[in-house]
Amino acid sequence: MIVFYARVSTTEQTTAHQRTQAEQAGFKIDKIVADEGISGVSTTLAERPEGKRLFDMLREGDTLVVRWVDRLGRNYTDVVDTIREFMRRGVIIRTVINSMVFDGSTTDPMQQAVRDALISFMAATAQAQAEATKSAQRAGIDHKRRAEPNAYLGRKPSYDRATFDRIRLALDSASPPSLSVIAKGEGLSKQTVFRLKHDPQAALAALDVWGL
Q1: Which of 9, 39, 105, 158 is catalytic?
Q2: Who contacts 182 (Cβ-Cβ below 8 Å, separation ≥6)?
Q3: Residues 106-138: pLDDT tens digits?
Q4: Domain boundaries, the chain
Q5: Smallest Cα–Cα separation from 19: which of 5, 39, 36, 38?
Q6: Which residues does residue 156 pair with via DSSP β-bridges, in sequence order?
Q7: What is the pLDDT of residues 35-67, one digit of tens each?
Q8: Using one digit for the tens of pLDDT, what is the confidence trace for 12-27?
Q9: Is 158 an annotated catalytic residue?
């Protein structure tokens, strides 16, 4: 079975777009698993509702396809651990970008060394790019504030990115608590939780605007 996993966190990304990219690269997808409205920099794969399913779904001989290795974790360590765990289970991981293949069945020690070094390099590159993007976004926001100190950025969010991720995980769980329960637990208004539920992309955009 070939499973395509997508993580979508911004309005510029869609599951359909990522699938199209994979199919144009020659992948024949049997099943799609996607997490939407989830930030990749603060949640591990196993913490995401659909990402968690992959660990129960994939079996030896299956292939996991992702756009790039950054879909598989929030940082270098997480990505490396995730890839190695799937390889131990006999799952082959392939990327759409750069056409990388990570196969745990390799027995030649030299090939294993090259493969492991490549995994580490790709994971480190993914984290470096994520940090560079975030830094650039902050720099752009700071510049705009200095250039236009009176520019209206909208109301500052009453939640941060970690809170956003916790709420989305709760809402996407098999038995989600009520909005009132979530609001009380997070110290937010019910209206705020309602907005995070029905328009997660706008909620993430507000965090980016304020550099949170």
Answers
A1: 9
A2: 167, 170, 171, 188, 193
A3: 777 787 788 788 888 877 776 666 666 566 556
A4: 2-126, 155-212
A5: 5
A6: none
A7: 877 665 667 888 888 888 999 999 999 999 998
A8: 467 888 888 888 889 9
A9: no
Q: Do 81 and 119 form a contact (C-beta atoms < 8 A)?
A: no
CATH architecture of 155-212: Orthogonal Bundle (1.10)
**Contact between 57 and 11 (Cβ < 8 Å):** no
Q: Tens digits of per-residue pLDDT, 143-164?
A: 556 665 555 566 788 988 888 8
Question: Element (H or E) spanning 133, and its range?
Answer: helix 109-147
Question: Homologous superfamily of 2-126 in CATH?
Answer: Resolvase, N-terminal catalytic domain (3.40.50.1390)
pLDDT (0 to 100) of residue 62 = 96
* Owner of token pair 């941060």: 160
Q: How far is CA 53 from CA 16, 48, 174, in A?
A: 20, 9, 12
User: Alpha-carbon distance 101 to 33, whole Å?
Assistant: 19
Residues 63 and 69 sit within 8 Å (Cβ to Cβ): no
Q: Which residues contact 163 (CB under 8 A, 6 or more apart)?
A: 186, 188
CA separation for the pair 105, 127 (Å, rounded): 26
Q: Name the residue with tokens 């493969």.
A: 115
